[in-house]
Amino acid sequence: MSRSWMASSILAVVAVIGCREAGTPDHAAPAHGETWSVTAWGERYEVFSETDALAAGKAATCNAHVTILEGFAPLKDGKVTAILRGAGGDQAAERSTPARDGIYPVEITPAAAGAFELVFRVEAPAGSEEIPAGSVRVADAGAPGEAATETHVSGPEAISFLKEQQWRTEFATAPVSEATIKESVAGPGRVTAAAGGEVTLTAAVDGTVASNPWPFPGLDVAKGSVVLRLLPRIVGRSLPDLEAETTSLEAEADAARHRLARLVELLRVEATSVADVERARAALAGLEARLGAARQGVKATTAPAGSPSDASLSVLAPWSGRVAEVAVSPGQTVSAGALLARIVRLRPLWIVMALRPEDVARVRGRPAGLLLRRPGSSGVIAIGADQLRIVSRSPEVDRVTGTLGLIVEADRDASELPIGSAVEAELLLPGEKRGIVVPVTALVDDGGVAVVYVQIGGEGFLRREVRVLARQGTEVLVEGLSPGERLVTRGGGAIRRSALLSSGAPEGHVH
Length: 511
Known about the structure:
Elements: H1 3-8, E1 36-41, E2 45-51, E3 60-68, E4 73-74, E5 79-86, E6 89-95, E7 103-108, E8 114-124, E9 127-138, E10 159-160, H2 163-167, E11 172-175, E12 178-193, E13 198-202, E14 207-209, E15 220-221, E16 226-232, H3 239-268, H4 274-302, E17 313-316, E18 321-326, E19 333-334, E20 339-344, E21 349-355, H5 357-362, E22 369-373, E23 381-384, E24 388-393, E25 404-410, E26 422-439, E27 444-446, E28 449-457, E29 460-465, E30 467-472, E31 475-479, E32 486-490, H6 492-503
Antiparallel strand pairs: 1-2, 2-3, 3-4, 3-7, 5-6, 5-8, 8-9, 10-29, 11-32, 12-21, 12-26, 13-20, 14-16, 14-19, 15-18, 16-17, 18-20, 21-25, 22-23, 22-26, 24-25, 26-31, 27-28, 28-29, 28-32, 30-31
Helix pairs in contact: 3-4
């Protein structure tokens, strides 16, 4: 904000001593002996001053209401100096302690009559700043003083909202200016895993789910790590049959070992052939394999339900991701093909948007960005063009909604955008629109009409109807405002309620 803009934006409203309504007419400079007020903005502070008539040699009280613009809080700790700056030098008076939070009554006694520039100097922890407040005229000694300000705004439509009310409310103002916003298309969307970014783990055989290890939703797993273990179920075999087969195979395997050892000794003295030795070795290998399988069957049959054993089958993660669902319980018996768990990749993500067909036709080339809002949340997640890719457009219109599906891939993590989330999605396009851009928080719904409130003085405001032309994230492009005006960006609803209460009008619908 430039100093020249601040000087040209000074607004004055006639008032009486104290915080009186700002709707008092002031078609001319203040009459003799009246108190006058002026509002000026700097980069850090707003000063709303109510001052007695100025006359040479006569003490006048300048009640400076000082607001810290960052956070819009009253100045509680600082020094305020009122300066009359003229050709003969500066005449200054200061106040280091407020009478009340934010209000500094500065006593100033002009030494000479004439025209002066009024300047306020604020020194506080938030920083020091000099704020020009326009031209004033000091009367001769014994004559009433007056203020000559550059702009006077008044009328019965002005709404009073006192500084004490502003300081107790979530409130903020900002100068109106022109800016550009991107062309865009918007519609409801849903966050999904990218294609191939979700895998379902199923049981390879009939069996019982072991209790160790045990996954849980939200668990990060590495590629190849064990997610679950499955104890195969032996179908159609009793434990005695399995134990008998094991004993028989152990005996046969032991005899085969002795025969192989005997044949190796005979081969050394050339009493047998190499072929006989190889046949004996192969027979032993087959018996040992059958014996191992029989022993595993015994272990699987005798193991407690859900406990791991050497007979268990490991269910591995095919790639690194996060467990999204566990569909079984420890010790549960499952059939082959049963769902055990689901794993999803965390990034990238797909945003599936439902758009009007004519909006989808406007999407050409690489998007300029993507803005996402969760329902009920004022926060916006902004995703840059370098993190986006158009994946596909649906070939047909949805018969129920009349929309086309557009899939956008975003290089974002599921920790920030949980899979399955419903979002309001706005895809930014390369083109731009220029005009008056204001925060969406400045808009107030007044019976279905979009209105804003313009500050015409420290405690005076005007209701202004606006037309919303476009919205982008937390900003809107509107008609009905002019550059240089001071706009209430937060707290417009409080001003509306105050105006309704002061006029006696009821809030809400009238049936």
